[in-house]
Amino acid sequence: MIMIDAHIHLDRYQDEEIKQMVLDSAHIEALISVSFHLDSSKRNLLLAQKYPKVKPAFGYHPEQTLPSENELNVLLNWMDDHRDEMIAVGEVGLPFYLRQEQGISIASYLEVLEVFISKAKIWDKPIVLHAVYDDAPLVCDLLEKYSVSKAHFHWFKGEQKTIDRMIRNGYHISITPDVVYEQEIQQLVSVYPLERMMVETDGPWPFEGPFTGKMTHPNMMEESIRKIALLKELSAEEVSDVLHQNTKGFYHITT
């Protein structure tokens, strides 16, 4: 299988781990490496300059304290300077898990997300989104406001009403290795069109089931693809080819 990891935090691995993943995995065509903040974005850019397989996305992950106005402006200006080198805006979104833990207000996060969505529209870049459950409809509102259709909801979880809305709008989702053992993700795969689907690892986030105790590696996507094929009642080869072409097309990957 020729695969593309549609969402990985490559900058959070050790140098030797990155080298092994990139150089020793001939069947991994590309790695979409998303960023947490400015320093993360800068490291992903350096990785992309070193390894052609690495395709960097720049942004500010929502599951952390918001940047100051100055920090945000510095990041946005840096992204504008490097817009030709970034494959997408991301990872951005809303802090669902942080809000569950700390009860923080979502209002300021919505304002920052709107800035990133507007910039993605101006730069004509896909946007990589962290938006699950009750946050997803809010993100859909903003995407619709700016007529952004090149939206990638990674590791999505949510209700059927939101899923239907995302399908109507043509948004993409990506499936993590927990599809092998998580019923909620399996149900999502069953109802979402294969033509709007990709696979990812979200590494180095660890997984359970058959992956317990293992370093998260793009090779794990093989098991994801086999499970998706089973759920879609298609061959693994057919599913692998569709997912591969989906990702290449969405991110305009030419090599």
Task: Outline the structure in words.
This protein has 255 residues and is α/β, with parallel strands linked by helices. It is 46% helix and 15% strand. It is built from ten helices and eight strands. Strands 1-2-3-4-5-6-7-8 form an eight-stranded parallel sheet. It is globular. The mean pLDDT is 97.
Entry summary:
With 255 residues, this protein is of the alpha/beta class. The protein has helices at residues 15-23, 38-50, 69-81, 96-102, 107-123, 135-145, 160-169, 183-191, 221-232, 236-251; strands spanning 3-8, 28-33, 54-58, 88-93, 127-130, 151-154, 172-175, 197-199.
Secondary structure layout:
Elements: E1 3-8, H1 15-23, E2 28-33, H2 38-50, E3 54-58, H3 69-81, E4 88-93, H4 96-102, H5 107-123, E5 127-130, H6 135-145, E6 151-154, H7 160-169, E7 172-175, H8 183-191, E8 197-199, H9 221-232, H10 236-251
Parallel strand pairs: 1-2, 2-3, 3-4, 4-5, 5-6, 6-7, 7-8
Helix pairs in contact: 5-6, 6-7, 9-10
